[in-house]
Write a structure and sequence with these properties.
homodimer, alpha+beta, Glutaredoxin, Glutathione S-transferase Yfyf (Class Pi), Chain A, domain 2, 2 domains, Thioredoxin-like_sf (chains A, B), EC 2.5.1.18 (chains A, B), glutathione transferase activity (chains A, B)
Chain lengths: ~200, ~200
């Protein structure tokens, strides 16, 4: 039988990788469609709001990576036991996403000198603000970001922290052993380990 | 009995207003704490990640406006009937939030000429891209943004679209009768009408 889910994104981890991790963790088959950069202009016009990833299921298509990840996290039981716990997870995910919002500018900047200045600002003001605070959360939460156990917030942090390294050209978590521990624990899950072995090799 | 919920934000609608609407809609009492701008530096240090709104309940504090709104929306039953429907709502909310992300720069820009240029770009590239697409969604969805009925996505759009008018100095929804209809329907709900009569008067 063909997979019931089709996930469409570019041929990079980026904003689709949390969803790919969640599919892998739950053992849910999915069609991993990867758009070639040269085909993007044509594909873009067909997307609901011109963005990917999109998820197709039962003939319906939705976009927005974090909305899709939240849906998949419920399926694979990486969510809270009640709605307050889900609120705590969602708040953590949105805080991690605030970091992402602040580093987008680096990718968009074409001028080398300006890009370098932006990277320095990200390291100081963004990583320097958020990471010590998240590190303290992991310390309070038994080695996880929230609720003292594995949730999809840990998956999102794990996949996004790769992007931190790409942006800065450094091992950003080197001075944050607890946050590094989150990434190591997630990537050591047998299902995720396997996914990282079989996934298409890309630049990061 | 004192209210069980304390919502803390600045003395403006902004990113707290969807939550205030949801409390009002559900008839849930809440303490509506409004920080004075001059006290913000001291208060900021006490917030989990230096941001508001925050919600306090049973001695716990969480931040992130959309996470809080999603939690309240479940309480007052403005969510989906199943998890796919919740995904559709969440995706719509995140699309509306993409508009907000793109207009933040206008508020941050201090230089008048640059601010004017940014406003023109927002009108053309942001409103001009998203609003016709959202207008078409409302047309397909019986006068609502998603699922063909009232959800918290309509509440978020209603409160945020005020900010569109503030940013642009125009009645941004004038050429989008369906979107304008969403706002009018939400604001005509007896509980919301009452809230808008009794809420503290602010600049917008």
């Amino acid at each position: 039988m063909a997979p019931q889910y089709k996930l469409t994104y570019f041929d990079v981890p980026g904003m689709a990788e949390t969803c790919r991790y969640l599919f892998s963790y739950g053992g849910i088959e999915f069609e991993d469609v990867r758009i070639k950069q040269e085909n993007w202009p044509q594909v873009k016009d067909k997307m609901p709001f011109g963005t990917v990833p999109t998820l197709e299921h039962n003939g319906k298509v939705v976009d927005q990576s974090l909305a899709i990840a939240r849906y998949l996290a419920k399926k694979v039981k990486l969510v809270g036991d009640n709605e307050w716990e889900n609120l705590e997870i969602d708040a953590t995910v949105d805080t991690i996403n605030d970091i992402r919002q602040k580093i987008i500018a680096v990718f968009l900047e074409k001028d080398d000198a300006k890009k370098k200045a932006l990277i320095e600002a990200v390291k100081k003001d963004t990583f320097g603000f958020y990471l010590p605070r998240l590190e303290a959360e992991v310390q309070k939460n038994k080695g996880y970001l929230v609720l003292g156990r594995l949730t999809w917030a840990d998956f999102y942090f794990t996949t996004l922290s790769r992007v931190f390294d790409v942006v800065s050209g450094e091992d950003v978590l080197a001075s944050y052993p607890n946050l590094k521990g989150v990434r190591e624990k997630v990537n050591a899950l047998p299902s995720i380990k396997k996914w990282n072995e079989i996934r298409p090799k890309t630049s990061h």
